[in-house]
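User: Hey, my collaborator sent me this sequence without any context and asked if I could get a structure. I don't really work with proteins. Can you help?
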Amino acid sequence: MKWIVFNVKTTKEAEDIVISSLYDLGLEGAEVEDQAPLDEKDAELMFVDILPETGEDDGTAHLRFFAEEVKTERNDGKDDEPRVLIEGEERPVQDVLRDIENELAALREFNLDIGEGTVTVEETEDLDWVNNWKQYFHTFRVDDVLIVPSWEEENLTEEAGYLLRIDPGTAFGTGAHETTKLCIRALRKYVKSGDRILDVGTGSGILGILSLMFGASAVLGTDLDPCAITATEENKKKNGIADEDFEVLIGNIISDPGVQERAGTEAFDIVTANILTEVLLPLTPVIAPCLKKGGLYITSGIIEGKEGLVRDAMEKAGFEVTEEKAEGEWRSVVGRKL
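Assistant: No problem. I've predicted the 3D structure and written it out in structure-token form, which is a compact way to encode the shape of the chain:
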């Protein structure tokens, strides 16, 4: 399948009105690229390993609207003019382009600053977007743990103490990133038989599944993305994990009373959180009540230089910092609840 992309250059302030106006033309699913820095609220919602880098904010925004290309042939065997499918109707690309330009001109007439308001058209390559990402993920080792994507398992020759079969999916990592390696090593060191684990920002379930392999009896994962349930369920099956041993809740444990209630009080031996410092700071006082006395709080996703902030947050929340580890420019801090 090929796609025609309509690229609109506008201003950051006009993003929403331009998207709304072109939506009325049948163009949906805008991809937005600007250099606006994340505010505190946005950062807290990003349960990810790495905060996206942004350049200098010049106030511009680039919007990309995708429309499926439809190929037709004339009677002489030559391709007809390019056409796209808009709301189930085939339309010439030039007609759609003209409508976009007219809509932008109309916005200008209302004295809206849309910046350049230029439109360009391009054709994407015919890529398999669902599977093309697999070329970047390969089998890798974290000490005695071997993590194998399913498409490489057939050719596996390495031996390991623990073998994790995983399909990370397009939205989640495989664990190759330094922050996840730090968490895996900490869990390998601290998980004891029968431990109950809370995994905040569980993603594809890699840390929860490994915790069960290391001897934990139960895992509760939380995540903001509903896709985490699908990804974790698939990876549980690949590794023979029973449904009752690993449950995933969708919601923000920092602010969602329902998730907090489900997590309970003094219910876990270990909490792991491989997320950003900006999330760890408000998360830490929420996590403290969830842990049993003497329980461990394993954090990662901390860029070099910010470990002091996490350390201070832990101590204020009633933790004793017991360990700090480094992997490249990333840091892990472990605290024990007093």
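In plain terms: The radius of gyration is 24 Å. You can pass these tokens on to your collaborator as they are.
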